[in-house]
Structure formats: C-alpha cells, structure tokens
Amino acid sequence: MDNLIVLIGIGFLIGAMGTLIGAGGGFILVPVLLLTHPALPPDIVTAVSMATVAANAASGSIAYARARRIDYRAGLLFAVFTIPGSIGGVLITPYIPRHLFDIIFSCLLIALAFFLFFNTSLPDENGVIPKYRRGWKFHKQTDSSGETYAYSYNQWRGIAISILVGFLSPLLGIGGGIIHVPALVKWLNFPVHIATATSHFILAIMSIVSVITHIRQGSYHDPYIIRMVIGLTIGVVIGAQLGAWLSHKIKGNVIVKSLAICLGLVGIRILIMAL
C-alpha cells in the first residue's frame, strides 16, 4: 500500500463507495489500515482516515449539491452539534490501546450490520406528505431529476444523535456516516437518498474540524503519513463523483443492504484479527 498508484486506486474505491452510501469511506479505510499497517497507533490510523474522509465528503457534497438532495437546514443544525464531540474524540484516541481499539471498532461494525440488514422498513420516498407531529420539523424538496421528497423529523433527537456521532467519528476514524445514515433513515424518517446526501454534508463539516484538531496534535508530521494522505485524497476526490452519480441509479434498499453486508464482513475480519 506504499505505492502512490495503489494509494490513488484505493482512494478511488473508497470515495465511490463512501459517497454512494453517504458514509465518507472511513469504515473501509480504517480496516485496510489496520490490516496493512499493524504497527500504526490508533491516533495515526484515525488521522489518515479523517483526512481522507474530509476530502471525500467535500467532493461528494459538491456533487450532491448539484443534485439538490441536501437538506441544508437539518444538515447545518446537526453539523454544529457534532463539533464538540469531534474535537474530544481526536484528543482521546491517543490513549486507547491498539488491541482495544480493534475490538471496539469491529463490534460496532457488526452491530450496525445486523441492525441495517434485518430492519428493512424504510420511510416513504414517493413524496406523500407525512402527518403533522408536535415537535417535528417538516421539509419538502425536489431534486434535479424532478423527484419530490416530503418528510418530517424530530430535530432534538437529531441533535442528540449528532453529538454521539461527533464523538465516535474521529475516535474510531470512521467518518460517522455509517451511524448517521441509518439514524437519519430509521429514527428521523429521512428518505434514503436525502439521508445519504445530508449525511455527507454534515460529514464534510465535522471531518474538517477533526483534521484541524489532528494538525494541532501533530498527527501529520511524518512525511510517510503525508504521502499516504495525498495519494488517498487524490483517489477519493475522483471516486466521490462516481459515487454521487451512482446514487441516482440505485434504489435506497439496495444502498442500505450493501452497507450492511460491507460492515458485517469487515467487522468480523477485524474481530478475528484482534482476538
């Protein structure tokens, strides 16, 4: 994984898959780094991942903005509440032993995989206006293809979820989308395609804050790490555009199922390695 072409290729795949499901790609990159660089401490693994996620999320958000699928009102609100946790997660990671980090990370992935795969009910995406509920915000928007989405969500529940995601994301280097997307879909009633786009937008803001914190911590001082970040970043920026384009072609259920399978396989592999 030290060759620049290989790094760009891996980054391209991460960017495409991460943007397709709104997860940023950190859930793919972290396992790759854990498997190929067993000597790297958790804080460096997460630093590399968050830098790559930031590039992926920024590139993917531009594509989703063109598709007009981002709910900016919810996205900005939730992003603000991820920031305190995103700083705290970066500061705590250096104190977690690598063995414990692997176990925590793998168990989280497996749990999310089961939840997504077996909980198949998804909110309506055909533009039917939901019933009014006290304390829920109503939103309706039409994307660039002419499809209209109408839904309502509980902003306080979203804020609570965002605080948790903000902490776990840089702590594990996963970007947070693998938690935010299912949370937006299952608990906040977002249509899948709006959830993936909005999650990416939130992730762009949150991951940039995490990268700035990592810079202040000195996580990128090694030229080898900088070279790795550059190669991966070039790949994800290109791959993110492909992922956003594919999101128009694939049904929401397929996206969620694909995410669940990927999470489960990777989680099992890392847990076996850790044990």
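(the above was protein one; protein two follows)
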Amino acid sequence: MNINLVNIADFDQRIVVDLIYATENNFTGRAVYDFNICLVLEPVAKALVKVQKELENQGFGLKIWDGYRPPSVQEIFWNIVQDERYVAPPWKGGRHTRGTAVDVTIVDLEGNELAMPTPFDEFSERAHRGYDSNITNQLLEGLMVKYGFVGLPTEWWHFDLIGWESYPVLPFPKDLLYNIK
C-alpha cells in the first residue's frame, strides 16, 4: 500500500487546482490552509490523471477544490459543522486526512466551472447525490467511478478512492512542502 502524499501538479499540470481552504472564500470565512498545493496519495493522483485525459477528449477538464486535509484543519471544520453527514469528527479520522478524498468539479478548457446542482460546500439536501442531477454531474460521477472512486452521498463534489478506510490518517507533511519547486 502506497501511503506517500504527492503534489497533483507533478502528475498533470492541466488539472486546475483551486484550494478553496487556502482562501477566505469558504464556509469558515478565513484561510485555514497555509499551503496552496493539492496533495493526495499517489494512487489518487494516477486515477485523477485518467479522469482528466478522458475529460479533455470531450473538451473539458478537472478542477480540484480540496485533497489532503491536515488533521488540525479537520478539527476546525468539526468545531464549525458538527454534522457527520458533511464533516467527519476528528477522532474518527476524516477521508481527506488520509489523502484519499478529493473535492472536484468539471471546467471548460478555459477553466470556467460548468453548472452543477449547487455551489461547493453547500451543506443542504440540494447538494446530496441524485437530488438534482444534471448531465455534467452525471459525467463527473461516471468518470470518477470508472477510475476507482466512490461518491459521498451528501456531497456531489466529494469522491473517495475505493478502499479509503484501509489507509491511515496522515500527519501534515511539512518537509514535502519545503521541497516543492
């Protein structure tokens, strides 16, 4: 089992990365990440490259809002949204804290987000899978499942690598960030 976090940009620079939690434009109202690279486990990165290639063949691309999440940030999120449908309690270990989860959407070739059922991080039933599915959402779902992911029932944008629960919660890899080019 490979449990090394990697920078998705090292695998495919065409994948758009917009780490929402490195900005104030998120449900907390403040930047909670002090980094701006998308870290995931290597098997996740390899699968996302396949999704990106297939989307490009159809005139689209992939955009990532979140990947690996430090356990300290998971605790911040839990303190704000204590609802296990949307945020995992820190003592259980979140999916993002294992490097196995990504929050994604589809963009056009200029990087503009396509219409989806709700905005990112809308904690309501409207964001649940299947509540208001559209053709773009179905395309995203189909490709992510095809390449080894499973969706979270309460968030159309959230996908986990199949078998995510067998991976450990990972500490924040400060040494990796200092080695980024």
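Reviewer note on protein two: The domain at 5-178 is CATH 3.30.1380.10 (Muramoyl-pentapeptide Carboxypeptidase; domain 2).
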